[in-house]
Amino acid sequence: MTAGVAGLSVVDLREVALGFGDDCLVLSHRLAEWTTHAPELEEEMALANLALDLLGQARSLLTLAGEADGRDEDQLAYWRDDRDFRNLLLVEQPNGDFAVTMTRQLLFSTFQELLYRWMVTGTEPRLAAIAAKGVMEARYHVEHARLWVQRLGGGTEESHRRMCRALDLLWPYTEELFEPTESWSRAADQGAVPPLSSIEEPWRHSIESLLVDSGLEIPGFPAWQSGGRLGRHSEHLGHLLAEMQHLHRSHPNASW
Amino acid sequence: MPPTNSDESRNLAFQQAIDADRTVEPRDWMPERYRSTMIRQIAQHAHSEIIGMQPEGNWITRAPSLRRKAILLAKVQDEAGHGLYLYAAAETLGVGRGELTELLITGRQKYSSIFNYPTQTWADVGAIGWLVDGAAITNQLALTKTSYGPYARAMVRICREESFHQRQGFELLSELSRGTVAQHEMAQDAVNRWWWPALMMFGPPDTESPNTAQSMAWKIKRVSNDELRQRFVDMTVPQAQALALDLPDPQLRWNEARGHYDFGPIDWEEFRQVVGGHGACNAQRIAVRRAADEDGAWVREAARAWEVRQNSRTSAA
């Protein structure tokens, strides 16, 4: 079963779009949890911007993912359980303090920007269109996160200490970014998405140079957590989904 | 210090300028009481925007569709923007955002009491948009002609966005009202709970409103509490009919002679209780705002320290 000129199978396109879409949806939820808790009003606005951008991307990607079997964005967001979510473990990690949130954003958005930048000229036109819009947003997210990592890394003793702790906490989840699923590898063979190995080096370089500039360093231990893309999640995701889905599921067949 | 001749003549000139409908600008001379009244009012308005993010923010993570989630998130973000904008207007009168936040979280300045009611169901998000924003617009449209220039201009911009929010709230309720039986009941229940508090938003009756006379003379306030309340009722009744929802007031009816809707008595004791700090959420709202401020202190401090270091690096280079 193939779709369009790209020769990408419907199943592979769905898996790729779902993985990406779930990353955006789950991270958007986490960022929205900051509402009314941000350290200053300007940041209240910025975090909401990030959450809104990611929610918009999630909606486009889930819509694309659902085309194959006629499910819309809400059916995919609200009627799948934890085991069927395909997001990275990184994005479902709890907000922690502001250093954790910004570190998570840096690690993810840097990855996302590299992917989008590549996909803009990929062979799957709908993914390319989503990437073309998303790349500008991801660029802004990266800049925002970099600025805060710099400020916190080089700010006070306390902010520096919190940044080190945030990196230790989240680093184990970074290896998974570059582990392709079978669908991803086939999509990469078709030229729709980049081979993940090709963006690992630029990602690492971008993160490492920023950390050095900010008086921080990449943790010395290896990253080992993975499984999100295959539906093997941390305990955190179930709680996030329970909150996100309960109202929608309490009124089956209702429209909102 | 006893008033001098020059104080008296400046007061007179100030009042003449107001009477001639000239706006007061930040660099103009103004009576201290005008300044302090203006600061109190703008600060209270700014605080209301920021505290008002909480009852609606309560539903962002649970919004029942992704489309509604995006609309709500954007709305709550707008409120943060309004807050920022209003704090900036207060700054033109010589008082900083940090100082005003401190006054808020220590209970020395107030915010609109409406936000001390809880949002129990999703329909409350719609009821807030329709009724609370509707009442706020009625109030704020009058304030677009208030005498203090920066505040009046802020109101013009804020009203534009509030009208948008009010339509979104109406549309949300409309969808519920025409939806399943459970959705309709949810909408009706929300309207039952928010109607009377919305009417209280215009403040005590004119006969008991201590600040009204001077505020009217200075054209800070252009329309009285009771007149604004009546405008709101007259505007809202037909909208409720369009929504197929009842307003919880058996005495509500059109009065041909007055050309207005009559409505039943407001429970001012409830109003006093909530203003006095005994509403369902007063303590919670302040606790959340205080926690955000305290938990964020190390972040703001780091940003300042970093800034200082950057500046000294630049000047050393």
List keywords for this structure.
A: 256 residues; mainly alpha; Ferritin; 10 helices; 65% helix; B: 317 residues; two-stranded antiparallel sheet; 13 helices; 2 strands; globular
CA-based gyration radius of chain B: 22 Å
Q: CATH class of chain A, anyone?
A: Mainly Alpha
What is the count of helical runs of chain B? 13
Helical residue percent of chain B? Answer: 55-70%
Approximate strand percentage of chain B: under 5%
Q: Considering the protein shown, what is the CATH homologous superfamily of chain A? A: Ferritin, core subunit, four-helix bundle
Biggest protein-protein interface?
A-B, 49 and 50 residues
Largest sheet of chain B: 2 strands, antiparallel
Integer average pLDDT of chain B: 95
Helical content of chain A (DSSP H or I, runs of 4+):
55-70%
Strand content of chain A: under 5%
Instruction: Please mark out the parts of chain A with pLDDT under 50 across 5 or more consecutive residues, or reply none.
Output: 1-5
Strand order of the largest sheet of chain B: 1-2
As for the number of domains of chain A, it is 1
Structure, described:
The complex is a heterodimer of chains A (256) and B (317). Chain A has helices spanning 10-32, 41-66, 73-78, 89-92, 98-119, 125-153, 157-170, 182-189, 196-213, 235-250. The model of chain A is unreliable at 1-5 (pLDDT under 50). Chain A has a single domain, classed as Up-down Bundle (Ferritin), CATH 1.20.1260.10. The two termini of chain A are 35 Å apart. Chain A is an all-alpha fold and 256 residues long. Chain B contains 13 helices and two strands; from the N terminus they run ααααααααααββααα. Chain B has helices at 5-19, 32-51, 53-57, 66-91, 97-105, 123-143, 149-177, 181-200, 212-217, 225-243, 268-278, 282-295, 297-316; strands at residues 253-255, 260-262. Chain B has a two-stranded antiparallel sheet. Chain B is globular. Chain B starts with a helix and ends with a helix. Classes of the chains: A mainly alpha (256), B mainly alpha (317). Chains A and B meet through helix 1, helix 2, helix 3, helix 6 and helix 7 of A and helix 3, helix 4, helix 7, helix 12 and helix 13 of B.
